[in-house]
Design goal:
The complex is a heterodimer of chains A (about 350) and B (about 450). Chain A is an alpha/beta fold and about 350 residues long. Chain A has 16 helices and 15 strands. By secondary structure, chain B is of the alpha+beta class. Classes of the chains: A alpha/beta (about 350), B alpha+beta (about 450). Chain A: Keywords: Signal.
């Protein structure tokens, strides 16, 4: 029986583990053109500046009267700051889907009642309050050495097979998120466990192969680049694309049997100080212009149904079809945040991971 | 005619008003029913979700344990994308897990035996429907009660209720339209005979007084009969008038023919003495004719129902004395004894002096004409009355009513016009007095009395 205070503490701890972005606050300030009536717009986000900058600059060019402050925080800081001061930000963007969903579910978001919002596909929004504006698959990163020694890796099934076949050769050469320490890793684990019961077999063979467990994407990418790891499992596609471009020996594999898709969620807080400016920004973000910028100048993946070509959800779907599994934007996300659920899942995960497989005996 | 006085409108208002109130009540009832139905349907979701959660509650590591099935939460959200809340509390009401510390339900399951309660809940500014399931873990050693509380916002329910209401509303509207149409037609049909009656009256020849003949419903048939009665009365009045005009012209024609004959006769002679005789005769005839015309005029005036003279206070004794004074010389010349009897106390009534003078004049004149030698004019105080008594031949009782008719004469002597008593009768009616004819004292002669109503103090 856990007192509420303790529950809050663990919730915060769990959030602390969700560390996709680099820690520390990054701020971008785009000043309004002098002479025009200035309207401030404060965006609180968990989205790296180098991904957000093209979007913000394009938006500012179209609306120069806005005085934009963009704060990039870790998902934890963003969430905590929002709860501390729900009237500080005009727009909140984050990839921590369960937390964003929970805020909206609790009534912290205000509906966006524009034509663009109404045209937004139903699977990528919730109640006109919460909008998914990116499409980022969870991928595997494979080192050239792996392909040379064990052949092409194209799916979860392939990985399971290779790991089962070569547990000694691959021992310690695979890396993935530690679901105990990383919020993202935990979210992927719970979603994958819902997708397929074979996930637990995969966890078991990962355990048998003494898979390395990392806390951040950076840690995994560094190990992969240095050749310490041959396979990185469950990395967020949008973050690794740039790193892979610098390292030709690494390739990104979007698994063809199933690929989880994470989406960044945006909402306008109910107590937003400048809701008009916030609506402008969201309309831009969900409109064809903003989405085209996302497709062409970022790695985030555009959702807009009218856009096609590289960098869009449509292109990914064409390639992978039904294998893409966007994390459903629904009350199921609330289960992810349940403390007992987390405890139960992690216990099971650890048990499967620690299971001594027959391959070793 | 004012619009508000239309029968059609009145009927329409009093029939439509209750119908509309009824329709309003039906709409309210339909809304309540739609809400109830929607709640019943959606409460099954709360029931299923709370059951799905309750099934996963276990006893583990000396505490309540829940492996929350995400599907249970998905179940609570329909297409309307409801907000979803859940919590698990232990026997002491302590919060074990959940995304919201939902309040419990105060209803006790001990009395009803229910383990599932639904209610509407206003929680942190959100309108929610909550389901609370009470259950317990049956273990070998102990039983552990717990409560699963689930809630979701009302959008789905409201949408379903609206949809159900829309269906009902369409039905109610069709019924209302039908009712209004039927009412309009019914009222129109019910009022149609009235229109027929109006047309029938309008289409009549304005000169005809024939009764109306057309089939009508009972209420209007009564109106038609009343109308026919009126017409019958008018027919009688017109017959009287026609007869009066005929008589009057006959009466006027005779003296005029006399005048013409006298003049013609005189013109044949050259003798001035003859001319003079003719002129004397003509003067007498024209005086009589003038008097006849005067009498006709006053009779016509008295018979006019529109005629309302102005009444003054007057003393009957004074009227009687004046009459005797006016006629005494005339009678004295003929050797008739004209006298007056005074009551000694004033007999005051409201009346028109010149009319009473005329009445007494006519009565004295009549008595004189029919050979009375002694005429007495009498005024009485209790009750106020005027009497004229003579010792002439009198009128037998069988002819009392007949002599009151215009142009009826007691005997043909060529002198009287036959209008005297008719005029007296008219004056009596104008004053509301009773005219009575009776035998004189000693069984001879005639007493004509006018008894006036006692004046109200």
């Amino acid at each position: 029986m856990m007192p509420t205070a303790l529950k809050r503490l663990t919730s915060a701890l769990l959030l602390a583990l969700w560390s996709l972005a680099a820690s520390g606050e990054e701020t971008l300030h785009l000043h309004a053109e002098s002479g025009t009536g200035q309207t401030p717009l404060v965006i609180g986000a968990a989205l790296d500046l180098h991904q957000a900058r093209p979007l913000l600059e394009d938006f500012h060019r179209r609306h120069p009267h806005l005085d934009i402050t963009y704060r990039n925080l870790t998902t934890l800081e963003l969430h905590q700051r929002f709860l501390d001061a729900p009237d500080a930000a005009d727009v909140v963007l984050s990839s921590a889907m369960p937390w964003q969903y929970r805020l909206a579910n609790d009534g912290h978001a205000q509906p966006l009642d524009s034509d663009i919002a109404h045209a937004w596909p139903a699977w990528a929004r919730w109640r006109h309050e919460l909008f998914a504006f990116t499409f980022e698959p969870i991928v595997m990163v494979v080192h050239r050495d792996f392909t040379e020694r064990f052949g092409e890796l194209e799916s979860h099934g392939d990985l399971l097979e290779r790991l089962a076949d070569h547990p000694r050769a691959l021992a310690g050469r695979v890396v993935t998120y530690d679901p105990q320490r990383s919020g993202a890793g935990y979210t992927y684990a719970i979603e994958e466990s819902r997708l397929s019961p074979r996930y637990w077999d995969l966890v078991a063979v990962l355990g048998q192969a003494r898979t390395a467990l990392a806390e951040t994407t950076g840690e995994m990418l560094e190990g992969l680049a240095s050749g310490r790891y041959l396979v990185g499992y469950n990395l967020l596609g949008s973050y690794v694309r740039d790193a892979v471009a610098d390292h030709p020996e690494l390739t990104i594999v979007v698994p063809e049997d199933y690929a989880l898709v994470v989406q960044r969620l945006a909402f306008i807080p109910r107590q937003a100080p400048h809701p008009e400016a916030a609506r402008l920004f969201l309309d831009y973000l969900l409109g064809e212009t903003g989405q085209r910028t996302i497709a062409e100048r970022t790695q985030l993946g555009a959702v807009h149904p009218d856009l096609e070509g590289p960098g869009t959800a449509a292109a990914l779907r064409e390639k992978l079809g039904d294998a893409l599994r966007p994390i459903a934007l629904g009350p199921g996300l609330l289960a992810t945040l349940d403390d007992l659920k987390r405890e139960a899942l992690l216990t099971r995960w650890q048990r499967e991971f620690d299971r001594e497989g027959p391959a070793f005996r | 005619m004012k619009h508000g006085d239309s029968l059609y409108r009145r009927l329409l208002t009093w029939l439509l008003l209750p119908a509309l109130i009824l329709a309003g009540l039906m709409v309210v009832q339909a809304w309540l029913e739609a809400r109830r139905t929607a709640d019943r349907a959606f409460d099954r979701l709360l029931e299923a979700a709370s059951l799905a959660i309750a099934e996963q509650v276990q006893w583990q590591d000396d505490r309540l344990w829940l492996d929350l099935p995400p599907a249970a939460l998905e179940m609570l959200a329909t297409d309307a994308e409801e907000r979803v809340f859940y919590s698990l509390v232990d026997r002491e009401g302590r919060f074990i897990t959940g995304n919201a510390e939902l309040p419990g339900d105060s209803r006790s399951s001990r009395e009803s035996g229910d383990t599932l309660f639904f209610r509407n809940l206003e929680w942190q500014g959100l309108a929610l429907r909550q389901g609370v399931r009470r259950s317990q873990l049956e273990d070998w050693r102990q039983s552990e009660p717990y409560e699963v509380r689930v809630a979701h916002s009302r959008e789905g329910r409201d949408a379903l209720a609206r949809e159900l209401l829309r269906g009902n509303l369409a039905y109610i509207l069709v019924m209302a339209a039908l009712t209004v149409t039927v009412l309009l037609l019914a009222i129109r049909a019910a009022l149609a005979p009235l229109t027929r009656l109006r047309r029938a009256i309008r289409a009549r020849d304005p000169r005809t007084l024939a009764p109306l003949e057309l089939p009508l419903p009972r209420e209007l048939a009564e109106l038609r009969e009343t109308l026919n009665d009126l017409l019958a009365r008018m027919r009688r009045v017109r017959a009287n008038q026609e007869r009066f005009i005929g008589d009057a012209s006959h009466q006027l024609r005779t003296p005029l023919a006399g005048l013409s004959a006298h003049a013609e006769l005189a013109l044949r002679h050259d003798d001035p003495q003859r001319w003079r005789d003719a002129l004397v005769a003509m003067q007498a005839t024209s005086a009589r004719t003038a008097r006849l015309a005067m009498q006709l005029l006053s009779l016509t005036r008295l018979d006019n129902p529109e005629y309302a003279p102005e009444f003054d206070e007057l003393d009957l004794a004074a009227v009687a004395r004046q009459a005797v004074r006016d006629h005494w010389a005339h009678c004295h010349r003929d050797g008739i004894d004209l006298g007056v009897e005074d009551p000694g106390s004033p007999a005051t009534i409201r009346g028109v002096t010149w009319q009473l003078d005329e009445a007494l004049g006519n009565l004295i004149d009549n008595a004189r004409r029919y050979g009375a030698r002694r005429i007495t004019v009498r005024a009485r105080a209790q009750p106020p009355a005027l009497e004229v008594e003579d010792d002439g031949p009198g009128i037998p009782e069988s002819r009392h009513l007949l002599v009151l008719r215009p142009f009826h004469r007691g005997q043909d002597d060529g002198e009287g016009s036959g209008l005297g008593l008719a005029i007296v009768d008219g004056i009596a009616r104008t004053h509301g007095a009773r005219l009575r004819l009776g035998e004189g004292t000693g069984g001879r002669g005639l007493i004509v009395s006018l008894t006036f109503p006692r004046e109200d103090p």
